[in-house]
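Blinded run. Sample ID left blank on purpose so nobody reads anything into the name before looking at the predicted structure. Input follows.
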Amino acid sequence: MKKFISSFFQLKESNTTFKTEVLAGVVGFFTVVYIVAVNSLILAEAGIPIEAAIIATILTSVVGCFLMGFYGKVPVLLVPGMGINALFSYTIVQSMGLSWQEALAVVFISGILFMIVAFTKLAKIVSDAIPYSLKESITVGLGLFLMLIGLEKGGIVERGTTSIIALGSFSDLHVLATVLTFLISIVLFLRNVKGNFLLTIIIGTIIAWLFGLIDLKAASGQSLHLDVYSNVFAHLSFEQIFAVPFWVAVFSLTMVLVFENIGLVSNHVNYLQMPERFKNAFRANSISVFLSGIFGTSPTVASVESTASMSAGGRTGLTSVITGVLFLCSAFFIPMIKLIPDSAIAPILIIIGGLMLQNIRNLDLKDLSESFPSIFIIAMIPFTYSIADGMAIGFILYPILKIALGKAKEVSLPLYLISSLFLINFVLQYTH
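Blinded prediction complete.
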């Protein structure tokens, strides 16, 4: 069996061993397992029952990692993405007014469009058409949005009476629990402690319990209830398929998914010095996104945490498969996951958002025709509480500024088309 595995994953050719791949898979799991709790709580804000959201997140992560392992054959972990889940719950459901069932249908159709891009030459055409500055600014804008959500969930900022946002009350035990957890979390992260986010969740939950914010007895006697998940699995609703908001959501989600994953998958295979594996890895990614809508969760992405697996020596898809198996085992801890409070999750959102914000250093701020559209994307995503609207404003502004400066030829034809579609969707969305 071990010989077959070694041959299938080409361990020798990839200069790795079975033991190294297994250890890398374990490291990857403990680095990214926090997503089960974080993603589930964000999905719950869209109306999906928390236990069903947990099961959906686990199943999607298992299948995503298996797809990347067996088909993509790279140590990239496919799990529901941070930022994308915010787009799902806060923009598509809360802002656009779609139900979570309709939002899952949006994910399903976006997955089909993603697969069309991944399995054709469109992937290269779309990637080449979008300026580097706009791609990077989307990541930065998502980071700022995640930071805002984390600060809100932790009670550190709240709706103000004389301003849009105000500082929360530090006499509130929930806020104090968040601050203490954040301080511990940032120290663990900066010291590069393995499994730092998982430790943050555990420590944060203990702090909340000590403050009397949760009752640990609530987890006793509970077991896995698959009947709850049966009301979510494959419960897509296409009732709004002819409505404008539905297709605005599809367009926005597809754009974010394609751009973000092209960048992530490309970075991962280049890190491995295996660019030839990009095509299958990207295709595995697209299939996983398609299945996300059926499983009942926001779409998967090639997680940034995959670098932890690679740093631990992971070189092949066996690493991803091991992580997938461990995700499957995590299903037995669902009663405990349900106890995790917002104060334990908020610090993770803040730190991940801060990491994404660092991409701003890659922007060319000297050329104002490049920087202003990017800055508008970064600012408008959190200010409008809508990733779709923030993207639309930046993409519309970019060709306008280029034309105004006599640099119309710097804008590719596909980008003119994409910007026009954003403008049309933007107008229809707010005049409908």
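Unblinding after everyone has recorded impressions. The chain has one domain: 12-145+173-344.
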